[in-house]
Design goal:
- This protein has 482 residues and is α/β, with parallel strands linked by helices.
- The chain has a single domain, classed as Amidase signature (AS) enzymes.
- It contains 16 helices and 15 strands.
- The strands form three sheets. An eleven-stranded mixed β-sheet has the order 1-3-2-6-8-7-14-15-11-9-10, sandwiched between helices. Strands 4-5 form a two-stranded antiparallel ribbon. A two-stranded antiparallel sheet has the order 12-13.
- The longest helix has 23 residues.
Length: 482
């Protein structure tokens, strides 16, 4: 079987089961692609080639013997480098932890090992996961595979860039203020922020204790769902996790959405959009109605207030995480992260507690909006993809701060803890992807996955491959590892 530029979980499950290709062949092929393509992307901080090949050989023998664990058995993935990996360095994108080698795996990595998935390596991120560009002062910027002069989004930029370029078959990220959904939108892949409490955070370096969520990226919604299913579940060592069954939709070839009611919060989330984003999302709404869904315009609580609350809460929580490091190793922080942590020192306990009280009010109001509909649909990133190092971007003749504008439609949803799925819905004229996000009720990942899959099957956006990944990379005489 001639291996394609990219292959996802469902595709590999079928290929492994039929014997068309083996885990060893896939891992060798992917490692070769990493060696050829990743110097231009900088998506990986560490590549565990020997370990991955050893795991692939074991998976291959098990699959051939008929001992198939599940859909992830033998499938190669990449993990954001804030997840502990036993015997493999975990830097969190920082100089301070550049040589940190954990003694244990994070819970999410343990679950994937039990599912038979194969770790290829650790991916680049914004320093301490505190930023939206993945431009790292210590390890260099991660680059967008659609245009290497542009950001891939952050903070999980390495995981998204690697997957979009076909340098893994799924990947893991974290989302505190959009760090899964932003890279998914800017790299043209699917990304799921599960409900807060669905996935254990044990062994994941924290940023905001009441905001952090771990989740997967996939080439398709189905792939994203299969990865999510493997990592979700209660963990006795993480008291924030819950014991609730994980339900996935049927991934029909021609799904319909009759009876599904979708809320459209135009007054809050459809303002100050780049024209291409506006056009792409309006087209997505027409596709959803063509599939049988009903659209209802809804009102949501004040997004600007919610974004301010999120910013204040995160400033305080992130600074508490780094209090001692900031005192003892201040010069080892990058300028942008150090500036944010300094701002966090100015947040008083009274301000933080008041913000948490107002947060509860926002969440109650937001939940009432979802009582009336099955899900909400809104633009993900409302502005064009920024250039690396760019601080401001022009939108409709107005300059906007890249960080604030990129997260405008994103960060308030972390206050709610609700599940949110980002899927590609179009492209800018310069060939960079556009994403739309679907918001569901608490613990109703099934619904947003169902809607996302239906939309995906009716469109072709997810099938597009970045230019850097399209040219064939001959591997017949290539080494087995980079």
């Amino acid at each position: 079987m001639e291996l394609p530029a990219r292959f996802g979980i469902a595709q590999l499950e079928e290929a492994f089961g039929s014997g068309q290709v083996s885990p060893v062949e896939v891992v060798r092929h992917t490692l070769h692609r990493i060696g050829k393509l990743d110097p231009a992307l900088n998506s990986y901080l560490s590549v565990t080639a020997d370990r991955a090949l050893e795991q692939a050989r074991h998976a291959e023998s098990e699959i051939r013997a008929g001992r198939i664990i599940g859909p992830l058995h033998g499938v190669p993935y990449a993990a954001k480098d804030l997840l502990d990996t036993k015997g493999i360095r975990t830097t969190v994108g920082s100089r301070i932890l550049a040589d940190n080698v954990p003694a244990d795996d994070a819970a999410i990595v343990e679950k994937l090992s039990a599912a038979g998935a194969i770790l290829l390596g650790k991916t680049g991120l914004h320093e301490w996961a505190y930023g939206i560009t993945s431009s790292n002062p210590h390890f260099g910027p991660v680059r967008n595979p659609w245009n290497t002069e542009r950001i891939p989004g952050g903070s999980s930029g390495g995981s998204a860039a690697a997957l979009a370029a076909g340098l893994c078959s799924f990947s893991l990220g974290s989302d505190t203020g959009g760090s899964i959904r932003i890279p998914a939108a800017l790299c043209g892949i699917a990304g799921l922020k599960p409900t807060f409490g669905r996935v254990s955070r044990r062994g994941a370096f924290p940023l905001g204790h009441t905001l952090d969520t771990l989740g997967p990226f996939g080439m398709t919604v189905q792939d994203t769902a299969l990865a999510y299913q493997a990592i979700a579940g209660r963990d006795g060592a993480d008291p924030t996790t819950v014991d609730k069954p994980v339900e996935l939709p049927r991934f029909d070839a021609e799904p319909r959405l009759e009876g599904v009611v979708i809320g459209v919060p135009r007054a809050s989330y459809y303002e100050r959009l780049d024209p291409a984003v506006d056009s792409a999302v309006q087209s997505a709404l027409r596709v959803l109605t063509g599939l049988g869904a009903q659209l209802h315009e809804v009102a949501t609580p004040d997004i600007d207030l919610a974004n301010s609350l999120h910013r204040l809460i995160l400033l305080a929580e992130a600074t508490s995480v780094h209090h001692h490091r900031l005192q003892e190793r201040r010069e080892d922080f990058g300028d942008d992260v150090r500036a944010l942590l300094d701002q966090g020192r100015l947040v008083s306990a009274s301000d933080y507690l008041n913000a948490q009280r107002q947060r509860r009010c926002f969440c109650r109001e937001f939940a009432r909006t979802l009582d009336k509909v099955d899900a909400l649909v809104m633009p993900a990133v409302p502005i064009p993809t920024a250039r690396i190092g760019e601080l401001e971007v022009e939108v409709n003749g107005r300059l906007e701060n890249v960080r604030l504008a990129t997260t405008r439609n994103i960060r308030a949803l972390n206050l709610t803890g609700l599940p949110v799925l980002s899927v590609p819905c179009g492209f800018h004229s310069d060939g960079l992807p556009i994403g739309v996000q679907l918001v569901g009720a608490a613990f109703d990942e099934r619904r947003v996955l169902e809607i996302g899959h239906a939309y995906e099957t009716a469109t072709e956006w997810h099938r597009r491959i970045p230019p850097i990944a399209q040219p064939p990379v001959p591997s017949d005489t290539a080494p087995s590892a980079p």
